[in-house]
Amino acid sequence: MLVKNIISECLSKLGMDPEAHNDGEDSVVKALLDAANSVYCEIATDYLPLVAREKAVFDEGFAEVSALAKRILYVVAVRKDGIAKGYKLYPDYIESTFRGEGEIEYAYLPDEFAFDGELSDTRIPEWLFAEGVCAEYCYRNNMSDMAEAFAAKFKESLLRLKNKGSSKYLKARRWS
User: What is the mean pLDDT of residues 106-132?
Assistant: First the structure.
């Protein structure tokens, strides 16, 4: 999905003319783009993490965090030959119980996107992302009533999306 389409939908939801703000240089568009980057970071950290796997070399049991391709948020697993190994995450390195080449699976922070960029995360519908951007924009511009309305719909839909597909087990009970 294109970022400019999301911004255009936000402008429509906020009651502004998308045609009047169709370039990336307008102050309103810049504010919406900044809000979009904040919202995407919130989604990636609190609701739907972005996960990557990379090969890493553990010299003397340590792998440098700076050697990873993306900005690490937290480690999901460290594996050697497909077998999970113990690890500890420090600010500059990851310590593990083995030496040599292994695999690190980690959640990461997304890169900022531009007005002409593309959002490749297909887990989030365009309308839902636009709701979050509108909420953030309204909070930043002291439109609290509108912000609360957008935020409520955004958070409720995100929680529903996060829990979609997870099964819940209910123990058998006897009703009298």
Answer: 92
Burial code of 105-123, b = ≥16 C-beta within 10 A, e = fewer? ebbbebeebebeeebeeee
Query: 0.90 cut: is pTM over it?
Result: no
**Residue 110 phi, psi dihedral angles, 5° rounding:** -75, 155
Looking at residue 82, the DSSP 8-state letter turns out to be: T
Structure-token pair, residue 116 = 């002409």
Express the helix, strand and coil content of the chain in percent, nearest 5 each. Answer: 40, 25, 30
Q: How far apart are the first and last CA of the chain?
A: 53
- Overall average pLDDT of the 94-114 stretch: 93
Residue 85: CB atoms within 10 A of its CB come to: 15
- Whole-angstrom CA distances from 126 to 37, 111, 160 are 14, 18, 16
40, 153 Cβ separation under 8 angstroms: no
